[in-house]
Amino acid sequence: MPASILIVDDEINVLSALTRCFKRAGIRTDACTSGRQAVSYLMENEYDCIISDYKMPEMDGFEFFEIAAEITSTTPRLLLSGHVDSELLETAVNNCQRGVANKRLKRLLMCVQIREFQAIFHLKQLRARSAKFRELL
Fold first, then answer.
1. Which string of DSSP letters, residue by residue, matches the chain?
2. Which member of 11, 13, 53, 78 has the lowest number of beta carbons within 10 Å of its beta carbon?
3. What CATH number does the domain containing 127 carry?
4. 4-8, strands of its sheet edge to edge
5. Percent of the chain scored above 70 by pLDDT?
6. Over the stretch 75-90, which tens digit does the pLDDT of each residue have?
């Protein structure tokens, strides 16, 4: 089963670009244009990572991550923002988010994050195989 990522962004162009980037890396993606829509996806699916824009109408990225953490507290979360400032960084760190990525640096950071998430997913697969092997013994 391929790694899976939930991507949330109200900007369709950003959402499409991120989805294409991850799909090229063999990662299954679900794309949502709002926090509300993403919550319904989280209720129905499990993800290896959640990526969300910070500034969105109705529900910002922090509000969405608060709800997401109640549904799946162990899933890593990455917050994207086109406007990173010290207050946003402090809030992200205090709320234990996975990280904050400035959209201007998105391409480079996404390549690094993709590799990191692939490694995490590969480790999960190895642990599952190891557990099955131990059951056979």
1. ---EEEEE-S-HHHHHHHHHHHHHTT-EEEEESSHHHHHHHHHH---SEEEEES--SSS-HHHHHHHHHHH-TTS-EEEEESS--HHHHHHHHHTT-SEEEEGGGHHHHHHHHHHHHHHHHHHHHHHHHHHHHHHH-
2. 13
3. 3.40.50.2300
4. 28-32, 4-8, 49-53, 77-81, 99-102
5. 66
6. 888 877 766 665 655 5
Total structural domains within the chain: 1
CB neighbour class for 131 (10 Å; exposed up to 12, middle 13-18, buried from 19): exposed
Region 83-109: mean pLDDT is: 52
Q: Which domain holds residue 28?
A: 4-136
